[in-house]
Amino acid sequence: MTTRRITTLALAAALMAGCTGPEAGEAGTTLLIAMTAVANEPRPALTTLARQELSAAINSDRAALRIVLSGTERPVVVDERDLRLRRGTQIEHDPGRRADLAGRELDRVAGVLSNGASNSAHLDLLTLLDHIARTPGRVTAVVISSGLQTTGPLAVDRLDWDHVGADSVTDQARSLGLVPDLRGKRVVFAGLGEVARPQDTLSPPLRSRLVDMWLKLCRAGGGECVSDSDPAVGGPPLSTTPVPTVPVPQPPPIPAEPKAVNLPSDILFGPDSAVLLPTAEPLLARLAAATPPGARVSLVGHTASVGPAESARELSRQRAAAVRDGLVRLGVPTAAITVDGVGYDQPLVADRDAAGALIPAAAQQNRTVTVSLR
Fold it and tell me: Which CATH number fits domain 27-228: 3.40.50, 2.60.120, 1.25.40, 3.30.460?
């Protein structure tokens, strides 16, 4: 073979390699849609941001799709395919046909999600994040879940997550080796805080704390992590496997002539804060309306048995004072109200077990401002 013939063949091979692009296995992105889809969550649906991610993946002509569903032991792959738009075996380039094919794929994926129904008896978002971490290559993940983890050390009813803050939860996860390695992964959370009966609805402050918790945990693993504000709600759940519910503080009923009412700090304040939340206003308005003219009002702040005793007393006093100020704005005379803060010196219930560990449900009962009328 002559030198000129060898050069010609080499040039042809180089041109072919440069023109084949993704058909020759050029590295692309995996769009991974992961959903928990348990019985106390709405049926999964594509949010606006999830549709944008899917459309971008389709239009890149370099992406693959994988859809996974929480299972009893590990996530189950329910759909996996190449997202490149084709006519037969060839990439489709006609704009009109591409738009039609892309629209069909969006509808198809939405249909797969709407049929999502896990048979798992636990909601396990952390395992889905671990699956994302273990997926090789570049990954954009859309995670559709309420985020109310019910199993493992990060089960939210064990964490006291609605009081200790997202940073403490992340530190705990890191100390236990539970932070997934999400470097090089983009994670879009959808549906955090969206629930279905029998799970009680989360208040806006609790939902914000839940979103913050998962974003910080995800970012601690090196991921590019965002939360979609659109609800990922596609109707009632299809799953019929019961899943544990997470206790959610509810506003107490205010009787027509109240004698004593415990106002949960969860509804009144953020973690370690004595600033009234907007959600406190309706509760205080009902209490002010039910306070008879001439009544004497006693406000006593309590906390869970966490942190230094003096700090707990001061926080509980500040919270009782904030409730006083709220009632005064609503027409209760200042002179009729007395304020005290006892921290955890006078617990309403015991919130430590025999080993000294905090009992989150009991701690929640102790975080309160007790209102007594006489």
Answer: 3.40.50
